[in-house]
Amino acid sequence: MPEPYENAKEAIAPTGAGGAMDLAMSEAETVRADGRGPRSLWSDAWHQLRRDPVFLVSAALIVFLVLIALWPQILTSADPLRCDLSKSQQGAAPGHPFGYDTQGCDVYTRTVYGARASITVGVCATVGAALLGSLLGGLAGFFGGWWDALLSRIADVFFGIPVILGGLVFLSVVTSSTVWPVVGFIVLLGWPQVARIARGAVITAKQHDYVQAARALGAGSARMLLRHVAPNAVAPVIVVATIALGTYIALEATLSFLGVGLRPPTVSWGIDISNAAPQIRNAPHMLLWPAGALSVTVLAFIMLGDAVRDALDPKLR
């Protein structure tokens, strides 16, 4: 975590060895157990994460999913759009361990390729919502006044929109079969949550003594915001964004299941689940594999977010 002004430290250090300066610095640094000096919040969090089995398992799953999303050829060389109606709804066969769907497409290949669309939507939507929400919420929390009041009321409006109903209305008029309309919709409804978290974190961070000392020494608003406030307020945003990523992947699958999210020929777990649902009694394998892949992916990101939250919040240690 970035250090405060050296002059700012000196300016408030005389208030006493156990005064406000020590309290402010204790929030940003932790003394190493081996006595080798202070460790920043981030290095201390990484030190804990490396020893957390939940983080290690979830991170390994996510790395694996990202790899097959980028290079599905690692696991299969077949074409997910190549189908044979003569094999419709057939079970597992040599070279086709998951069987075939209604159109005679290989369920294994489609499950592998489905990771690409779902993870792309989740990552892009999370990055977009985090950047937009952090920017608006950070500015509102730092400057306050009418900008803060205006943003809060706008966020309240978006919080009042039901996600599924909003998706049905917004995406039903979109004809594109790419992932970007879904990403845009999720960002549109996802940024207020991040904005509120960022706003609260910035309000807390700007009350620290080293920020007040920097202000007293003539530091401009931009320097204080970028150098001292933002780095000390970014941890809650990272935690919320990590957990939200899994939620956004599940939301994309839900919208695709309802027919307003991703559309064929895009390969998506939500589309495959939608196509398999009417045949669950006759061919349950069509539903179980894409649904299982979706569940594992969402669980992995939620577990990762919980581990990161525990590592970045000293109160939970």
UniProtKB/TrEMBL annotation:
Main location: membrane
Record-linked InterPro entries: BP-dependent_transpt_permease (IPR050366), MetI-like (IPR000515), MetI-like_sf (IPR035906), OppC_N (IPR025966)
Transmembrane regions listed in the UniProt entry: 54-72, 119-147, 159-189, 233-251, 287-308
Subcellular location per the Swiss-Prot or TrEMBL entry: Cell membrane
Keyword Nuclease: no
Keywords: Cell membrane, Membrane, Transmembrane, Transmembrane helix, Transport
Bilayer topology annotation: Multi-pass membrane protein
Keyword Magnesium: no
CDD domains: TM_PBP2
Domain ABC transmembrane type-1 per the UniProt entry, residue ranges: 115-305
Family label: Belongs to the binding-protein-dependent transport system permease family.
Protein name stated in the entry: ABC transporter permease
Lineage start: Bacteria, Bacillati, Actinomycetota, Actinomycetes, Kitasatosporales
